[in-house]
Design a protein that fits this description.
alpha/beta, 4 domains, ten-stranded mixed β-sheet, about 40% helix, Glyco_trans_2-like, Glycosyl transferase, family 2, transferase activity, transferase
């Protein structure tokens, strides 16, 4: 038979086969519809059935077309993707298409076909640029993976089930995860089923050798499965590991052939090699599950046999795992489950751009994460402010952020996780007051309470009353402070923001100095590059959401009493207001020369552009972060006398001070600093020296360590 004639014959045969298959598919769908109609829709088609129907249609469309799948790549592959086929060509095609569509880095594709009996052989003939191994019999997943790994060229290999479809950015996220920390041997991802619930988000090895996929049935958007953590093992449906490590460990242990427990055992060997298994939620797949294997009697017997083998081979590791009890699930989702679990309560997710104490809270959160705690963050008063797309902009991705959980429903979560948290860290007095009043104490029984005052707000209230012409008596002032300090009665340890406020806690609270630690601000000295002549304008950075807040009060005063005087002397000068600004007086501001930017995630360009930073605060407590940050960025400051006293910089040239009740004096200082280059340079240099001395980031780990010692926790980082 000639080549052309043979080709026409094969094409005709294929078209007839597809036609018959389509006719059978239509008949099946018609019968299903009639059955559903008769039963009034009471017999639903399962997601798997619907998916199969859709994917078979796509397979037939592909096969009857002239389309081919080309995986050729001229660049060295970053990752080699290993696929094992056994029938279910429609799912294999969907998997291949997802790889073509959703991977943006060079990769090698290695396919092993275990003697499929459906359209798989025809599909394979339509693939270019892949390594294809055709076995004469079904060797099973394990042996076929080891076969494929021998052909791998990439730095990493990815074990991927052929009934899985990768999401956009999945492979890139898994590769990037290896660069996020030392000693990572395996990265796994979030596995979603066809009904849009989770199959697993990392998996648990129990002490008896049994296993559990964490979070099965959860919503994939649940905060509990959207942070990075070390886990016991990851499913072989999606498991990435360095190629050299895979070879050094001898690949998948063939004692488990043909299948079951092979990926669990591999991860156990990775642990024994001193390496980590990391769950990366941004690496996500949709998984059909059991497409080729099913749950036959043989499969169940094989699982039982291999479970026994796994226990025998990994007794030492299993002795460090928890017993298989439902009460242990939340703790066991972390490989390092012996590390203390810490509940961190603050108003909101502490993004640095909010100002108002949140930059410091952000630093505290980071320091606690670096100290080794397993952290859960509760945005107590603004639980719905963030989304998964925004929440980790400047928050460590190892922190679980309970989006949607706040003061009204936190107890529900704590009861589910009763006994999990050994430390509860509560920031700000209003949160401490509410939390200790309404929390279910039984759900946090045994937890030690750290009260992070952030500031003594009574001091701010006292000053605000004075500014507004309703000063408190000395007795009233003392009672205000004493009332707030009484919050420490429920605390095992107190964190103050400076030595001055620490003394208030000791004096009013009658506590030992050893139970009070000081954590100020952590800032690197990073002066912006522009010189005096290249700069112009004034800058204010801070949260301006509320009319009665210190920031909005200070800006209203500055705009009314100071800005007109500055514009008269410096008519071309611009005042830049940066920060969230829902306060109507700021939002509607249309004063000449004033530019309202709103929230800006990276303010460095404005720090490099402007010549003077203003802090006209009339009432406040704590230490003003915005002044420290401006100084660290090399931007000289004109501040109110209150801020000058809080920083202690009045006498040493770190800033220029003026009364916040004298607009003319404040304007004079701003104009002088804006015009006088020598004064500007001296102020800048002095402030940079002060920041280096007072805001050394190295202080944070030492203080956190002191807090741990006070709580009887020797070293959270090594507790596992």
């Amino acid at each position: 038979m000639g080549k052309m004639r043979k080709r026409r014959y094969l094409k005709s045969t294929l078209e007839n086969a597809i036609y018959r298959a389509r006719q059978g598919l239509r008949k099946t769908m018609a019968i299903t519809d009639r059955i559903k109609g008769r039963l009034g829709g009471s017999v639903p088609i399962t997601p798997k059935e619907t998916h199969t129907i859709d994917k078979k249609g796509e397979l037939y469309d592909f096969l009857i077309s002239e389309e081919r799948l080309d995986f050729a790549n001229e660049q060295s592959p970053v990752v080699s993707i290993l696929l094992v086929f056994f029938n279910r060509a429609e799912l294999s095609l969907a998997c291949l298409k997802s790889l073509k569509q959703h991977i943006g880095i060079p990769f090698q594709l290695v396919i092993v076909d275990n003697a499929s009996e459906d359209e798989t052989a025809i599909l394979l003939n339509r693939i270019d640029g892949a390594e294809i191994i055709r076995n004469d019999d079904n060797r099973g997943f394990l042996l076929a993976c080891n076969q494929a790994a021998e052909r791998a060229l990439g730095h990493y290999i990815l074990l991927l089930n052929n009934d899985a479809e990768v999401h956009a950015g999945t492979v890139e996220s898994a590769v990037a995860a290896f660069d996020t920390g030392a000693g990572i041997g395996v990265v796994g991802g979030k596995i979603t089923l066809l009904d849009d619930t989770l199959q697993e988000a990392g998996s648990i090895m129990w002490q008896d050798g049994s296993c559990l996929g964490f979070a099965r049935g959860f919503n994939p958007e649940d905060p509990a499965v959207n942070f990075v953590r070390d886990v016991d093992y990851c499913s072989g449906a999606f498991m990435m590991t360095p190629r050299q490590l895979f070879r050094d460990l001898g690949g998948l242990d063939e004692a488990y052939a043909p299948a079951y427990y092979e990926e669990t055992d591999y991860c156990a060997r990775v642990h024994r090699a001193g390496l980590r298994i990391v769950y990366e939620p941004r690496a996500a797949i949709t998984h059909f599950e059991f497409a080729s294997a099913g749950k036959s009697d043989f499969a169940i017997r094989q699982m039982t046999k291999n479970a026994s083998l796994f226990r025998e081979k990994n007794r030492g590791l299993l002795d460090t795992r928890l017993p298989p009890e439902s009460s242990n699930i939340w703790r066991a989702r972390h490989y390092d489950h012996l590390k203390p679990h810490l509940l961190y309560v603050d108003d909101r997710v502490p993004h640095r751009s909010f100002g108002g104490g949140f930059p410091r809270s952000n630093d505290v959160l980071r320091a606690l994460a670096e100290a080794g705690f397993n952290i859960t963050l509760v945005p107590y008063n603004f639980p719905d402010e963030d989304s998964l797309a925004t929440v980790y902009a400047d928050i460590p991705r190892t922190v679980e952020v309970l989006l949607g959980v706040g003061r009204t429903n936190l107890n529900d979560i704590l009861r589910q996780r009763a006994g999990l948290y050994g430390v509860v860290w509560v920031s700000r007095p209003h949160n401490m007051s509410h939390f200790m009043t309404f929390v279910d104490r039984a759900a946090i029984a045994g937890a030690q309470i750290v009260y992070d005052a952030e500031a003594i707000f009574a001091l701010r209230d006292i000053e605000q009353a004075r500014v507004e012409g309703r000063p408190m008596s000395e007795e009233q002032s003392r009672e205000q402070i004493a009332k707030e300090v009484r919050l420490i009665e429920s605390a095992d340890h107190i964190v103050a923001v400076n030595e001055h406020e620490k003394e208030h806690f000791i004096d009013y609270g009658k506590v030992q100095g050893s139970t009070v630690s000081v954590l100020g601000h952590a800032l690197d000295v990073t002066p912006t590059a522009a010189g005096f002549a290249a700069r112009s304008g004034l800058l204010f950075v801070g949260n301006m959401d509320y009319e009665d807040s210190p920031n909005v009060d200070s800006i209203r005063w500055f705009l009314n009493q100071v800005w007109p005087l500055i514009r008269r002397e410096l008519p071309e000068t611009t005042l830049h207001l940066v920060g969230a600004n829902n306060a109507p007086s700021i939002k509607r501001c249309s004063i000449d020369g004033v530019q309202v930017h709103g929230r800006v995630d990276d303010v460095s360009a404005l720090y490099n552009q402007c010549r003077v930073f203003i802090a006209p605060t009339r009432y406040a407590a704590g230490v003003p972060f915005k002044v420290h940050e401006a100084a660290a960025m090399g931007l000289p400051v004109v501040a109110s006398e209150l801020i000058a006293d809080q920083t202690g910089w009045r006498e040493n040239g770190g800033l220029l001070a003026a009364s916040s009740s004298d607009g003319e004096a404040f304007a004079k200082q701003c104009i002088s600093l804006h015009r006088d280059e020598a004064q500007w340079r001296n102020c800048r240099e002095q402030a940079l020296k002060l920041i280096a001395d007072e805001c050394d980031p190295a202080v944070y780990p030492r203080v956190i360590n002191d807090v741990l010692k006070a709580l009887g926790i020797t070293n959270a980082a090594s507790a596992a």
